[in-house]
Amino acid sequence: MRTLIIACVVLFISACSNTDWRTASREPAGIATLPSEDSRAIIEFYAADAYSWRGWFAVHPWIAIKEEKATKYNVYEVIGWQVERGLSAIREYETETPDRYWFGSKPQLLLSIKGEKAAELIPQIKAAIAGYPWANEYRVIPGPNSNTFVAWVALQVPDLELELPFSAIGSGYAD
């Protein structure tokens, strides 16, 4: 019982900390190859601890794709608050640095494919993204969520051979 109380107090204190998602780092982590340094097609999958205390249990993943000779990556991720605003859960944007911190959490590179194999897989990934069946839904548990999205893409494109971490809660929803 004492351990449970201590765990609850620690969780409460961390949840009430003075960190603010609006000021948390979104700087590049220095993991990704800059498009100006490599003209080949590139596919990268990232995951970072979820914001605040949620990061103790879960990650937020995203997909970065750079076509051959492209000057920027296209990044795809699922964001729950977009659904709350009547938008698609899938967020797409262009950037030279797809490896940005996720609201203070440094990303981990889960998979990187470059060159011809990447060029062959990119159309399949884009088709999987376009066919994502839960684009207008979002639930933290059991899903569909950001982990469901990445797991769905991996299931549709088995040649990726992507392995998500255990903390990718909601990835099993895609099965």
In short:
The protein is α+β, with helices and mostly antiparallel strands and 175 residues long. The protein contains 4 helices and 5 strands, in the order αβββαββαα.
Record field, number of beta strands: 5
Total separate domains: 1
Taken as a percent bin, the fraction of beta residues is: 15-25%
Q: Which structural class is indicated by helix and strand composition?
A: alpha+beta
Name the assembly state.
single chain
Protein topology:
Blueprint: H1 2-15, E1 42-49, E2 59-66, E3 73-78, H2 80-84, E4 90-95, E5 108-114, H3 116-130, H4 146-156
Antiparallel strand pairs: 1-2, 1-5, 2-3, 3-4
Helix pairs in contact: 3-4
Description:
The termini are far apart. The protein has 175 residues and is of the alpha+beta class. The chain has a five-stranded antiparallel sheet. It has one domain (24-165). The radius of gyration is 17 Å and the shape is globular. It has helices spanning 2-15, 80-84, 116-130, 146-156, and strands spanning 42-49, 59-66, 73-78, 90-95, 108-114. The longest helix is centred in the last third of the chain and has 15 residues, at 116-130. Helix 3 packs across helix 4. The mean pLDDT is 86.
Which short descriptors sum up this protein?
175 residues; globular; alpha+beta; five-stranded antiparallel β-sheet
